[in-house]
Amino acid sequence: MNIFLDRDSRQSITKQLYTRLKTDILSGLLVGDEKLPSTRSLAKELHISRNVVLEAYDQLLAEGYIYTVDRSGIYITPGVSIAENITNQPSEKSSVIGLQFEDDQGTIDFRTGIPNLSLFPKNKWGSIYKTICQDLPPLHLDYYEPSGCYELRFQLANYLYRVRGVICSANDIIITSGAAQGFNMIATHFSSINPHVIVEDPMSNGITKTLASSNMILHPVPLDHDGLLAHQLPDHIDPSLIFTTPSHQYPTGAVLPINRRIKLINYATTKNAYIVEDDYDSEYRYEGYPIQSMQSLSPERIIYIGTFSKMLFPALRIGYMVLPKALKSAITSIKYIEDLHSPVLEQLSLAKFIESGLLDLHVKNSKKYYAKKCAFVVDVLHGVFDESETAHTDNNTFSNSNNSTSNRKTNDSMITDNMIKRPEIDLVNIPPIEITGHTAGIHLMVRFRDYHVSDDDIVALRNAGVTLYTAEAHTIIKGHYTNAILIGFANLSDDAIQKGIQIIHTHLLSR
Amino acid sequence: MNIFLDRDSRQSITKQLYTRLKTDILSGLLVGDEKLPSTRSLAKELHISRNVVLEAYDQLLAEGYIYTVDRSGIYITPGVSIAENITNQPSEKSSVIGLQFEDDQGTIDFRTGIPNLSLFPKNKWGSIYKTICQDLPPLHLDYYEPSGCYELRFQLANYLYRVRGVICSANDIIITSGAAQGFNMIATHFSSINPHVIVEDPMSNGITKTLASSNMILHPVPLDHDGLLAHQLPDHIDPSLIFTTPSHQYPTGAVLPINRRIKLINYATTKNAYIVEDDYDSEYRYEGYPIQSMQSLSPERIIYIGTFSKMLFPALRIGYMVLPKALKSAITSIKYIEDLHSPVLEQLSLAKFIESGLLDLHVKNSKKYYAKKCAFVVDVLHGVFDESETAHTDNNTFSNSNNSTSNRKTNDSMITDNMIKRPEIDLVNIPPIEITGHTAGIHLMVRFRDYHVSDDDIVALRNAGVTLYTAEAHTIIKGHYTNAILIGFANLSDDAIQKGIQIIHTHLLSR
Q1: What is the pLDDT of residue A428?
Q2: Which of B261, B299, B310, B416 is the most buried (most CB within 10 A)?
Q3: Taking the model in full, what pTM does it have?
Q4: Which residues span the domain enclosing A18?
């Protein structure tokens, strides 16, 4: 046999022999039922120990490449041939795929939904994790229940009650891999029961995609400055779900007032539908207390979904659902089918992080930082766009849409509560920009009096070093938010914000 | 107004006032359009600062409970009333739900698929994680690409090539939340394209459930001692997928010989189907080299799925898929919809763990430990069940089913390659027990000559302190594995194994 064995190789002689024989069998050089040399004669021929040959043959036997016939010898198994090519080396990586956001380095990215990543106390977090590892009895490395670690669910139930008014016990909570998994599980569950869902329009296009991928049928309801137009909830359909972001509407930033919340709950009750309350960044409220969750008003009617992506950091992928008791079992089963349960050690670390007060401290520090940052953005926007004019409204705080004598500014009439068809924008008597959503959260929305922002603008701005996002991208019925942009500010420096807004203004002026 | 404020409370006076007013509004004590006292007069009445009232009113205003009329005053918003009860405290946790496995404490649990949890170097792991946290630039706390961290995929591609012969680059890998997520994503993708799948019978009932939940139609193919009976692959259906565990069949432990692998690949090619290779515990092979993956024979035809649940620990929830290029984009989209991507910090820790040689070391140590443990189990089983007899076969290593003159023992005929209908078990000339699957992995299968194990036996044994699992539980066509039990041994002490097997024997004898 023509076999070359390299004694200087890092591979053992045995492995070389085994590999060579196998390759020859697979490639057809050694054919079915062909007899192999005896171990003794092959060892002699190759000047190697007989044990080496025995080991190599044994392995080929174990994998079925060869067979033995008692008192006769060793043969190649017939039928071993491959049509398809075999490469013997992993293909070279064509290029190192970096992290998604590396594309954006050097640009000013106004992406929403990303907290300030430098604020997270990652060293403290690492220490907690290490301590958890040290102290953990090995049996906690086993599989867990699908709903997640009790320690975290217990801490979370207390936290959510204290901070968001959510009424639940640890048993009502399922720990998810981010809010995204929560939305997907709900879509998976309800799509086969009743695919009709009511959604705010605009709403996060990530959630829209999730719902669409489960073949849900979306029924958009428009918004005004106070959020969902509850009196426009459709009578003629029976939805299974109503998606809402009542504490800081995404993307407009509206706060849904209590009367609309009640109307929404009553509607859901009549329709026997569940409300999905997406409470994604409302820990950060800069005026007054945090707006309480809707869930507290009707815990058995509302699926409350939250995430630590904005409170801590997105790469953590820990979110949670607070479920009505009637849904717990079905959603838990889906979680089990999807991934058994979420990773445990970071859940335990997070439970400790909450218990020791570090979450409260971090949220407090972040809130202070974001409040300043948000005020800065508002100032810069007005400084750049208003020039001499200085009007800005916050209808979430100072007006109530049901009360015609309230102190709402006239530019509210961009979208009114009383008109199902949205009116044309009145270009007279409104200021150059209107800012909403800046009393809470880590982004705000800007509507222009004079500008509409197209895809071409987005491309041009990208070339000018600014990545900008429009509210229109999150609409279902198109055309009503073409004059609105979103400013995610949490993870940008003041310089970047100032420069970015200036570039946007210059671009819009120069078109 | 009848408002009691507790100056000794841990709640601020402002929050007490706000909460009280809100409760009165929600409960209907204060009704719609009722005028509230002015801030000045309420402050005077309650002997508190006017600022306290201003703050409480401001918050109620922000949440829409009240509205203001210029130069008139402050009013309750109409329509704020709740039919459903509001509890003001989170319900007491009815009982502390412990971890799933706490039920089993004090019992001897022969569960399969659980490694020895004490072997994992959790302190080293914790230190690596802490170092990752310290050294990580904050921007790595951001969202990642759906396929997972490049660092881990790169290390994994090299590891899988080196140890399992898998041919892939980092770009072909998706990091999943355990193998479970991989199976679910495949089922999600293919169920809408072509729901017909071929499965080994028996196969893991966890995977069966996953496939069933996506409405896949299962076509079982029986096994013999060498695994899937490739010549029984059905001609009359066109499956989209073929599920197999070629390196250590679950649950029988068979190793699929190369000629059947080739037959299976050729079948899949003819049918334009993909093979799903579930390579769940084959790092641990106690005789010869590890059986190489099937994937290396046909990388564009085979979806290779693995997990760190058995190599490291289940609570980690890190698995991986090596995908044919044609599937990468579709499965990545599903991963994105399901949970955006898997948690990052543990992925980076694992990349470092592999890079620094700790994975190899851990697998080496574990393998040595399991080999001893496995041999011990085999000895105890024979000692207890064979009494004077001492037969045990390992057809995976010493026989080849295509070769009638091989040294296979006669008890092979329990299931033969040449008969589509399984024959009755021949009770003559076979030893009391037959052990399979003990040359690899962390469980083995025992078939009894004289005993069938029913659900009643499982209950009785549970009461006697032993949790036992049957192969029959993993079958699709019932009745052929009623005499087979599974012994997961990795996480049990020698004493527990000895005692547990003795209890099983005593029970079966005494029925």
Answers
A1: 53
A2: B261
A3: 0.80
A4: 13-85
